[in-house]
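Morning - pyridoxal-5'-phosphate inputs below, output right after.
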Amino acid sequence: MAYSEARRAAYQADLAGIREAGLFKEERIIHTAQSADVEVEFPAGESARPVINMCANNYLGLSSHPEVVKAAHAGLDARGYGLSSVRFICGTQDIHRELEHRISAFLETEDTILFGSCLDANAGVFEAVLTEQDIMIADRLVHASIVDGMRLSKAQQETYKHMDLEHLEEKLQESQDKRIRLIVTDGVFSMDGDIAELDKICDLADKYDALVFVDDSHATGFMGKRGKGTHEHCGVLGRIDILTTTLGKALGGASGGCVSGRREIVELCRQKARPYLFSNTVPPVITAAANRVIQILSETTERRDKLEENTLYWRRRLKEIGLDIREGSHPIVPVMLYNAKLAQEVARDMFAEGIFVVGFFFPVVAKGQARIRTQISAGHERHHLDKGLAAFEKVGKKHGILGMGKKEIVEKFGL
Ligand SMILES: *Cc1c(COP(=O)(O)O)cnc(C)c1O
């Protein structure tokens, strides 16, 4: 069938529907390197202007760190631009194996396999290691890429209520006839900054002879005293069977991901995981820079310590100003506004004040849970945070929401 005028009109109607529902995503164009200070063009066509970035996953400020950029240049010179191959044909260099060894040592796991992204890691691992005799029992709020990866596996799928370990235990009791029971969770949940109780989850796994899968994309590099991740934070190093994570957030923010964990599971992924077998190698330039990142993080906790300090300050001051934030300790700090329109207006006003933040609302978060998700970085200096706080105070005052909790905001603005 040709791409007829009727077909074009039908797609245009789909797009118009997305716009009418207020769900059309407009991208903001950055004219600089990713950093605390960026220049952003928004709306499209306006000239770019300087703003402070408070919505990146650049937790450790490594996205354009001179040491990382230098290592990337050196990698490009030494190992070229591309490999033009998947790993198992002719796409594995010494630096790829080096990175897998470094990540295993850093995460304190037995072995690691790189993927083009964490989405690819999640797309490949469940199908590679589970069969129809097995069951996956997942937290209801796991990342979309985990949901997709589970769909590709023949194992049975079950879910438990978000962070409800009694519910998880019921599901474990109901599935004792299965060969493998795999508990599936994010280490840190990206919308709320909730931290999974991995200690209790590992205890349940021991009690019911289950395995544990954790996606630690929002934790690797800074959670725990040495920044190893949620498993360190919860005191369960060595007890996570399958850990996936990304190089695209705290670890320099380029791209790439991995499955790390039990030796045999990693080897099975090398033999069977389709995104590994049928998609290109992580480029040498990224691999070389990631080696440097892991080396830096293994040598010093300076950056994760600064991130922790920045986060404590940001959370404390936002509360003092009178904003309603979700309690916690993670550098994801959601400023709760509940009403979707209010969240969009506050984000727009913040941008006018020189602070780059984004409103999140349904379907990205549940209905009536609209918010601005601020994200703190070790790349923020005190003056960045203070400027962000002053802007929130000014914009909060304008909308009359300072000192208000959920009840008052919902009464005033509706849901
Ligand atoms: C960001 C994220 C991913 C995707 O990582 P990519 O490497 O960008 O594909 C997967 N899982 C979780 C929990 C994430 O937050």
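Note: The chain has two domains: 22-53+302-413, 94-278.

O.
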